[in-house]
């Protein structure tokens, strides 16, 4: 009589291979999602927080003033934002009447940095109006440390300066 052998049971090697491939695909999706979240670049937000008019001088044809303000740079990214020196420009009737320098620096990930800025501005073409509409522009170009990508923080603000009282009435930043 031939020797007895155990009956063969079907093996499920294909089933295990499917589970391994499924686990690798799932891990890949999770890693790609995390990387896209961390490396997503969002432009930092640059805004005037507090403004005050100092030393306002008005005559029939011109005006001059000193504008003291606090500029806040918010970095919503997961990496540090490093930027070189920038400039804030004050415009009256689309002509530059003054500006100030924003010093070079860095903002930590997901935080904000406050900087004091003093702008000296003079305009000749004044009509003796009670309110003067001014606009301010600033651009800070820099890099985000994690992704090494260049981004720009921009600011466009408009303000109405009351030349009689020496105060800012309306103020709006985009």
UniProtKB/TrEMBL annotation:
Location of the Late embryogenesis abundant protein LEA-2 subgroup domain: 71-146
One Pfam family recorded for the sequence: LEA_2
Transmembrane segments annotated in the record for this chain: 16-39
Organism superkingdom: Eukaryota
Keywords: Membrane, Transmembrane, Transmembrane helix
Protein's name according to its UniProt entry: Late embryogenesis abundant protein LEA-2 subgroup domain-containing protein
Species assigned in the record: Salvia divinorum (Maria pastora)
């Amino acid at each position: 009589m031939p020797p007895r052998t155990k009956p063969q049971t079907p093996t499920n090697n294909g089933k295990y291979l499917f589970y391994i491939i499924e686990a690798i695909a799932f891990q890949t999706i999770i890693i790609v999602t995390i990387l896209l979240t961390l490396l997503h670049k969002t432009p930092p937000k640059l805004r005037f927080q507090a403004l005050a008019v100092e030393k306002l001088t008005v005559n029939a044809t011109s005006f001059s003033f000193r504008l003291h303000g606090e500029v806040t740079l918010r970095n919503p990214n997961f990496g540090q934002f490093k930027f070189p020196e920038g400039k804030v420009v004050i415009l009256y009737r689309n002509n530059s009447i003054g500006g100030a320098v924003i010093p070079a620096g860095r903002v930590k990930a997901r935080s904000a940095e406050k900087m004091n800025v003093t702008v000296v501005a003079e305009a000749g073409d004044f009509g003796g109006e009670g309110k003067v509409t001014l606009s301010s522009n600033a651009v800070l170009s820099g890099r985000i440390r994690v992704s090494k990508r260049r981004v720009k923080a921009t600011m466009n603000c408009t303000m109405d300066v009351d030349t009689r009282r020496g105060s800012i009435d309306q103020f709006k930043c985009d």
